[in-house]
Amino acid sequence: MGLFRLLFWVAVIFAAIWIWRRFIGQPKRPRPSEDKHTAAPMVRCAHCGVHVPQSQALSQDQRWYCSQAHLEQGPHTGDR
């Protein structure tokens, strides 16, 4: 009977430690930053009209382009 009590209390102590680590001892997860949820500024390609993030666009003469090829070709002229 004494061995059973010892095993019972060992199991209770291990369960308490497991619960403590799992629910109480865990560090809180940081909240997602508000900056991650804001949309990146978009600009329109002067050649083809595609919208791209400003951070990826190329600029020349106050116009934005989606690629180096469109920057070299310049703004689109004429009817589509």
Provide structural commentary.
- This is Apq12 family protein.
- The chain crosses the membrane at residues 6-24.
- Keywords: Membrane, Transmembrane, Transmembrane helix.
- There is one protein chain.
- This protein is an alpha+beta fold.
- The chain has one domain (2-26, 40-73).
- The protein is built from 2 helices and 4 strands, in the order αββββα.
Keywords:
single chain; 80 residues; alpha+beta; two-stranded antiparallel sheet; 2 helices; 36% helix
Mean of the pLDDT scores?
83
| Class by SSE composition | alpha+beta
Strand content: 15-25%
How many domains, in number, for the residues?
1
What does the secondary structure layout of this molecule look like, with pairings?
Layout: H1 2-24, E1 42-44, E2 51-53, E3 58-60, E4 63-65, H2 68-73
Antiparallel strand pairs: 1-2, 3-4
Quick overview of this protein structure:
This is Apq12 family protein. Keywords: Membrane, Transmembrane, Transmembrane helix. The protein is α+β, with helices and mostly antiparallel strands and 80 residues long.
